[in-house]
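B., you asked whether I could sanity-check this one before it goes into the benchmark set. Here's the sequence:
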Amino acid sequence: MDRATICVQGGYEPKNGEPRVLPIYQSTTYKYDSAAELAKLFDLESPGHMYTRISNPTVDSVEKKVAELEGGVGAMMTSSGQAASLISVFNIASAGDNFIMMGNLYGGTTNLFLVTMKRMGIEARVVNPEMSDEEILSLFDDRTRLFFGETIANPSLAVFDFDRFVPLAHSKGVPLIIDNTFATPILCRPFEHGADIVIHSSTKYMDGHAVVVGGMIVDGGTFDWTKGGKYPELTEPDESYHGVVYTESFGKSAYITKARVQLMRDLGSTPQPIAAFLLNLGLETLSLRIRKHSENALAVAKYLETRSDVIESVSYPGLESSPEHARAMKYLDDGLSSGVVSFSMKGGREKAMKFMDSLHLASIVVHVADARTCVLNPASTTHRQLSDEMLKEAGIDPGFVRFSVGIEDVKDIISDIEGALACL
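And here's what the prediction gave me:
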């Protein structure tokens, strides 16, 4: 099925006489007719649900829908996008290991990788597109476990160069994990460009209505975890499950199975059934919304380019003037570049904040990818924990504004911007 159809029909297939709409299975536990049946579940010998901390029928249906949208072999929903980022790395990296990360990642992810995971003994090594291939490869060693990037970086909007970075990662025998939050599987399917694992903050465009926090990890099922001896977590017996070897027992689904039955079990980053139900409602209109967001954002970006009197620069991959445009046309569906436009105000932080205070239709919120237009100054909010050098690495300056274009009539959005600029 086409992705637009999967958004509506995927994941849940009601049988004769069953509810047409995905039900909310609001139960922590499940009944079985015999102790032997339940024992098989705990030995990972048969499918089913044992406890909602690990899996749930409502959550399972949404996971299947997202896996189908991305073209993966399986998916696992988490309680947040941050939890998805953490588990995606921790699933294959232990104390003493390291991994490569792009320097333009979302600020929360950057802090997670450079601060919190450092305390866990896992080192993140930062690269940027300006580095030569040789410089990037020099950061790999025999304890490097993965390469992590974002399809469309938040908030710099740099488009990930799959054709460059996938071969670099694979030449060193490690998988590419890509955060596909801004693009969504409607605008980009990273597995088709060589990625191995995809994650999402489903809080953003997948939900699209700012009602439920969540995350998703999707396994492409293509990476060979047995080569090179780098991943004993997957290729050697797990004593917490009676010595199961994930690559032997679960084949292409080894990675996502381990993430669920070991890390979700132990860390408890569990999505609630109601969260999955609400996410599914958002997914049903995702194909329509992300295209409208993109069309509106391009119109807004073009308008902002005409206001060089107050705006220093405009960043949006859909603009022909953007240095990211060629990659957007190459990797994103029809060059559609999502709904976030970034720009820098002349006059720095003070002017940026006055601009935001002068808006009426657009709301100042710590969020993006809402059906409603919203705005933020990352340097003073979401990225304020970063040093000036790290801010520069992430493509942010004090006057930087992240403008998340909604699905309202674009004439009204531009009129709101015009009125706010007139107040500067």
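One thing to flag: Residues 72 and 220 are 4 Å apart (CA to CA). Otherwise nothing jumped out at me.
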